Structure formats: C-alpha cells, structure tokens
Amino acid sequence: MALKVARNLDELRAHAPRESAATIGVFDGVHRGHATTLEALAARRNAGAVDGAWAITFDPHPLAVTHSREIPPILSTIDERLELLSKFSLDGVFVLHFDEATAKITYQDFIQRFFLDALDMRELVIGYDCHFGHRREGSPERVAEEGARRGFGVTVVPPLRLEGEVVSSTAIRQALHAADLERANRLLGHPYLVRGTVVEGQGRGRDLGFPTANLAVADGQKLWPPDGVYAVRVGWKGYIHEGMMNIGRSPTMKRMEKSEIEVHIFDFGHHIYGDDVSVYCEAYLRPEQRFATVAGLIEQLNADRREARERLARP
Amino acid sequence: MNRFDNRVFVIDKATGPTSFEVVAAMRRVTGLRKVGHAGTLDPLARGVLLVCTGFATRAVEHFMDLEKEYEFDVLLGVETTTLDAEGDVVREAPVPDLAMETLREAGASFVGDYTLTPPAFSALKRRGQRFYALARSGEVTEAAAPRHVKIYGFDVLSAALPHVRCVVRCSRGTYVRSLAKDFGAKLGLPASIAALTRSRIGAFALAEAFPSEKVVPSHADELVGRTLDDALAFLPGVVLSARAATLLKFGVLPLRQDVVEVVGAPRPGALRLLDESRTLVAVGTREGDRAKDPLRLVDSFRLYVDSDADESSAGAAPRVARRVAE
To answer: Is B111 part of the contact surface with chain A (CB cutoff 8 Å)?
Structure first.
C-alpha cells in the first residue's frame, strides 16, 4: 500500500479521507515509542473500527517557528520521516506546513479544521506526551474532554520503556552522540537513517580503489552520527545495496575543515550523481584516524570492508 | 525581560531580619517569584548573604560549598542558652588576664579537621522547625548531631578582655557560636558570642555587598546582580565543541572527546560546561568511576540556559538535571 502524502489541505481533500482514525506528532526519528502509537492507529483501522489511518506531522519542526532560538538537532528530516512512516501500515500522512499562523490555532480549532473537517476523524490515537495547538494547550486530558463533547474516541498510548529508560529522541541523541549506534538503533527500532543527494567529490576515493558517493544533506539541523566508519545499507531507486560510510574530515587525504559524508557502495558501478540515496547506518566500525601512508589507509579500508560485510551478514 | 532575573546578588544582611525576610524583600523589589538564598545567616548575625533569582536558584548548592569567612567577638566568662547575647546566662566565670599569645594559640589549635556540635540556636531544622525558633520559644531541644568541618584559619585579631575579636575561615556547616564556646573551653572558660559577621563567601566579600536595608523599591536602581556565568567563574570549566554544546542544551551528556579547551585548574566536583563563546550552558558533576566509563565527562548536569526555552516546545529536553541510567 503506497502511502498517500498530502502537503496542503487541497491535496488532503483530493484524497477524501472518510471515517478515519488519526494521530499527530513531529515523530522525530520515528522511533519505537512512536511506533507503538502508529501501530495502535493501524490496529483501529485493521479492526474495522474506522476506514482509514492517517497521521498528521509538521514541517518545519514547530520549534523552529515558535522559537527564534535554537532547535534540537533533529533525528529525521521530513523526507526521512516520510520514508520511515511508509513502513507502517498507514493510509496517509498529512504534512502540515508549520508557520506562525499555524502556531496560533487553538487546539479546539485545530481539531475542527484538520481532524474533523479534513480527515472526518472518528478516533484519535496520541502519545502520552502529545501536545498540540496554540501554546501546546491540547494535552491528552483536554483532547479527551473534547472528544467526549464532540463524539470522537481518544486513545492515549503510554510511554514505551526499553532497557529501563523511556524511549525518547533525547535518549537516541545521547546514544548517537556516544557512537553507541547499537543502542540508538535498538531505541529507534530501525537503523539510523541519513538521506542525502549524491554530489561530485574530488574522486580521491576512486584513486584508492574505493569510489565514494559524497552525500549532501540539505537540512542543517540533521544530527549526523559522530565521525567514524560505519557499515551501511544504501537505498537507491528502490534497491538496497551494502556498503560502508565514512563521516569525517578525511585526515589522510583531504584534511577538510568540516566533516563530510562519503559512502562506498560494494560491487556498484552506476553513476548516481544528483540522485537521492537513503543510508541506513547499521553498525559503527571505528573512529576516524589519520594514516601515515596511503598504503596504510588502503589496508585499513580493506579491513573495514571485510568487517562491514561481516557485520551486515549478521542476522 | 526583568533585569533582576537569573542573577546572583551579594547582599549584606543586617542584624535582625531572618535570611528569609531578606529573600521576601528581594521578591518585592525585583517582582520575581523565584528567589532564594545560598546559606542561611541567623537573624542575629550580619554579613554576606547570596540571593539568587530565576534559574540561578538552581546553582545555590555550588555557593553553599564555598569557603566562608566570619569575623566575631567572643565574650569570655559568660555562656548563654543561645551562645549569644540574646540568651539567658547559663554559666559565668571570672576572666583572668590572658596573654595575646595564649589566645592566638587557642585559636590556631582549631585549624584542620574539626568536629563540632551545632548550637541549639541554629538555623538547622528539627521536625520541620528551626532550632533557633525552638530555642527562642524556650522549648528544650536536644543537640543536633555533631558534624565534621574544616577550619582553614583561625586568627585572633585583638583582645579587650573579656572580649576577643577573631576571624575564622571554614567549610560549609561550621557554626561559629559552637566554635566560640569551644574556644572558651580551650581556655577553661565559659564563652559566647557578642557579635558575628560573615565577611566572605568564597570571593564574595562584604565590601561589595548591597545593604539589606536598601532592598526597598526606592533603591531598586542601585541593586545590580551578577550573571550566573560571572558568579560561577570560580568553578573549573570546559569549552565544548559546537555540536556537543548544542546537544547539551537538549539534554545530551557531553563526552571527554567533546572538550575543546579547559578553563581553570581541573579538580573533582562541579564543572562548568561552556559553549564555544564561553557562555555557561550547564554545570556538570562527576560521581561515577572514571575507569568504568572513560568516555564520560560528567554523570549529570543542570542546564542554565534561558528559561523560556522549553515552555512551549514539543519534545524538547527537560530543563532539570538529567542523569543517564546505568
């Protein structure tokens, strides 16, 4: 089932959702905590209680609008979120453009305009910490009262605890920052995803026998995994390839000012400049290091490739 | 933005008001609700009282841990119920003509680790009531548990017997009244305190303190607080990479590899966590075993970033101290 994506109310009306169950959230990272809500939503539709399951999400991040200051480094851009949301059994996602006007809509008006009028919502499934509407006044309690008054059901999904900790984007940022990719991926429920566009690099990798795709990540708020070498799976035009990724300043070859992302895809000969690729970070192999000789670097890259293949072969 | 918010005020509390009354006066003058002090000074004592507002109230612990200096007059030959001039006389004895050298030696003998019994008339609480309130109401109180403190210096400045003027530098938790009584005991005499002034908390000295009598609306213009950055400058600090500093603001613990620069001499305990512009983001503390987790810079931290940051955010980091499990 292809996920319907609506980026404004007209597009949403074109899909004409009827008798739907809905959820709402930023869903940054689309982690396992979000998954419990999304699965509960799909379960309502699967049980025949409603005809469709829709999620409302925001772009840009509401914090970017309500705060002139900093916003948290995000785990997933809107494209990444849509890619991750497509793995749930939802009918559609409404990407609500978030601006200052959106921020001022009261939760009561929000319910009327988006949930009731646009989605014909019969049931709302929300996470325990979900707040929406002006000043985040639409808490689960208030929304439940509104549901009782207007005749839609409200299900509040409790927090998910894993390894003694509530699954949260903060916990995932912490694990990523500490290069504990295993833990981050466990909390996410999927390998950390980095989407980008392949841009022309300096071709140094090709000279070494390890041609790389240099990745441009458009969203400056995207949290990159720490510098280092990773075993990855790369999604390109619907196919999944195995590979390895280097994030860093290439201290042996280039000595960049800022970190870059380079992906070497195993057994791959296509020209992919300008294409978007999805890089799933499966395992962290080692920190970035500087080699005294190019031969030393090549030797290490061969070892990295062996290790990456081995890690990717694990169930 | 209230110019009094998120500040540390060095106040010279007069004899008479309670520390809380000074806080109440600060609330009226600043119009702020979140106001607190870092270490009670008994009503009868005068001197430096640190008053914090806004998110600076979360930093009081660091100020309370600072070394303190007191100047005090010991009245030899008289012990009272409260160990000061307010109490009823318990014991009296004639004071012989003591040589300055004898007094100095008695004072110097306190330097080092010291165990003292807090006086009945202290700001400590027993079953929710201040010991001094209980003592004042005439209720007999058992003494609070003895405590271990450090005396860094004890000098006798002058003597006009039976009065002896002393200055002591000591750790948190030192009761100067008890010290005065013990000073008398070294000389074989009952003793109490005639006057007590806290002259310094860390580097916050009486000379720069704002008189508590002037904590009134008509003097509000003269009241200036220090930023928390400035007030906590005595703690060692580390400058973090831009990435780590940003993540820290959203609840992510920084690691040792995130340190770009060390500011001040590193020592155990609290550590200022600064961003690349050297602005205070948080104060971290290290509790665990370093060998067990060599990557870890601190085990917990408390954020000191502008307070409206997460009021209306969806999914922002909590502002309170976070501790990572395990």
So the answer is: no
